[in-house]
Structure formats: structure tokens, C-alpha cells
Amino acid sequence: MHRLRTEKCAYFRNLLVDTCRLAIRLSQWCCTAPYPLDPYQRIKPYRQSKSFQTINILRRFLAALVFGITLSVPFLLYFLKADRVNAFKIPLSIRLMFYLQALLQMGTLSYVLLVYQFRTSFHRFYFDRLVCVLEHFGRRDIDKSLSALQTNMCRLLIASLVFVILVFSALVVRDHSWSNLLKVGIYLATQLMATSFTLQYLTVFGIVAVLLRQMNDTLELILYGTVAYDEGTNGSHSRLRKPVRFTRDDEQTIEKIRLLQLKLVQIVFHTNGGEYGLLLIVVLLTTFIFLNTELLQLYQGIKASAFTFDVIGAKLTNSALKFGMMVVYAIANRTIQTQNLRGLKLLFQLHSSSSSSRCHEITNRFITQTTLFLANGHEAYSMISIDMTLILSIVAGLTNILVVLVQFSDGKPSCNQL
């Protein structure tokens, strides 16, 4: 029995490593995850090898280089091209937003490169709990769901890299000066770091959503006796019939699902409400300021006929990439939210279908647990909701701020003429 349990744990552990490998490897090369990181690399043999020391030195040198360039280039460009900066009358609103964006970006990069990339506690936290849930609840077909998740992550990475290459090409073709190459280098480094940061988040939340869906399928199986897979909605639906009578084993299964769901809830709470959530707030705020600055520049540049089509295309592509990253954060939380709402509906049906006091006690605890999570689980550091309401808030905020800034920028010349 002990041997079978060990083999089962090793199987799910390796399956989870394969699912997360793409995000972790990219994050390690982009200096947003520690290296070596167990279980993706075996720490003791790596520490005894020269390759470990070489890679570690290379990563530290790369982190120091990116940190130094990011910190020095804005000041260097300002002093070297002060005449060009003063030659054009840049609106104060754009200057203030640009300075605030640069300050937040430098602060975030400094923290990630100097502190966060060496933290292993976050990765140990979610990995141990996911392995525990898989060991006690993993189904035989879980590998297909995780393989589909891995495929979606690859597609998302390819799409992000295509957008990055398009913007990169437009920036390089437009200007071949050294100052522009430095700016392009900063853009490429920060965008790759943001992509790896996002990929970590989506992978972990995708695995949590897969497990929650399988738990809900089991609850439907207990409630209705059979479950059919619905390819149209990428989920399952029950073949409705009269609820079956619950046995002692059914009650124990519901309690087991509740305890395992608690581990998944802890992962979401720890990610959104912990150190990652604080970094996520700064990333969202920086992206919001960037979108305001970029769209206002587009409006004024097109109005003054100062932008060519390649500049307009590069700015629109870059804005779409930034906005798309915020959308995928919201979708990741929405997927988990949908599964919890589905589970809550099933729990109410279980509660009303049974006359057992023990079943009522179990479902009451389960309902309370799920309700509390839905109320507070999808907030970054208990400050910003990162479900689909985030998109509506961003669009509304961008519209309001841009309308005010455009009115000020259009009204200023008429005041000067008077």
C-alpha cells in the first residue's frame, strides 16, 4: 500500500512539473523565478556541478545589467537629449503620467530583480498543495486536461511573442541610434519579464480551475447519478433525474471534497492576497497609466499629423498587448469564480435533497466556505477586484481620464489666443 501511494504521488508530482515547466523555465531565464527550484531542478546535484555555478552567475549578471540599464537610461536620455525634449511642447499631463509610470516601473523591476526572484516560498506553497489535491482526488483523465492547459499556455506565449516582435521591429526600423536601441532593450526585457510573470499566474490558476471542475463533476455524480461532458461549454452537465439517496460514503466524499477545495482556495488567497498580489497591483496600475499616456499621445500625434503609420501601428499593437494581459488576469479569476458558483449551486441542491442532519452539517460548512471565498478571494491584496469587473473598470477609467485630458489639451490653445 505504501509503495502504491508513493508511486501515485510521484506520478502526479511529475505530471504537475511537466504542466508548469514552460512557465517556470521562462521565468527563470527572465529573472522572475529562483534557480534552481525544486522539483524542476534537483538542488543538491546542481550545486555540485559547474553548470549550476555558471548559470547562476549568468542570471545574476543579467539581473544586474537589466537593473542598471533600466535605472540609468531614463536619466541618460534626458541629459543627452535635453534640447530635443525642450524643443517640443509636451503637455504637462503626459509628462506627469510618464514620470509616474517610469517610477513605478523602476520600483517594480528593482524589487523583482533584487528580491522576488530569489523567493522560493510562493512556489513551494502552491506546488505542495496541488500535489496533495492531485494525490487524493486526481482522476485518470486529469493528464488530458492538464495537457490541454499546457497547450493553451504555449499558444498564449506564441501570441504574446508575436506582438512583442511586431512592436520591437517597428521600434528598430524607425530609428537606428544607440539611444533608441537602449530604449528597445528596456522594452524587450520588461515585456519578457511581464510575460513570464503572467504565465506563472495563468498556469497555477488554470490547474486550480481544472481540479475544481472535476470536484464539481463528482458532486453532480453524487446528486444525479451520472454526468455528461458538454464540449460546447468545455465543462460537464448532469442528465437531470430525481436525486438519489445519499449514503455514508457520499457524505464522506462531500466532506473530502470540501477539505481539498480548501487547499485550492488557500492557493488563490495566497496568490492574490500575498506578495504576488501586491506586485500585481503595481503592474495593473503601471499598465493603466501607460494606456492613458499612449492613447493621449496617439490622439495628439494624429491631430498634429506628427505620427506616421508605422508609429501609430506600433503604439496600437503595444497598447493591445498591455490590455490583453489585464484581460487574461481577469479571465483566469473568472474561470475559478465560475466553477465555485457552479459548486455552490450543486451544494444548495444537495442540501435540499437530503434529510440527513450530518449531510446538512457538511453542506452548510461547504456553502459557508465557498461563499466567503467568492466574496474575498478575487481581490489583489484586498484592494482591487481582478475578476471580469476589472475590464469594465479599466475601460470606464480610461474613458473618463482621456475625455478630461483631451478637453484640457484642446481648450488650452483657444485660451492662449484670447
From TrEMBL:
It comes from the Eukaryota. It is a multi-pass membrane protein. It comes from Anopheles arabiensis (Mosquito). Its main location: membrane. One of its GO terms (cellular component) is plasma membrane. It is found in: Cell membrane. The keyword Transport does not apply. GO terms for biological process: sensory perception of taste; signal transduction. Belongs to the insect chemoreceptor superfamily. Gustatory receptor (GR) family. The keyword Membrane applies. Gustatory receptor which mediates acceptance or avoidance behavior, depending on its substrates. The chain crosses the membrane at residues 57-80, 92-116, 154-173, 185-212, 273-291, 390-408. Keywords: Cell membrane, Membrane, Receptor, Transducer, Transmembrane, Transmembrane helix. This is Gustatory receptor. InterPro entries: 7TM_chemorcpt.
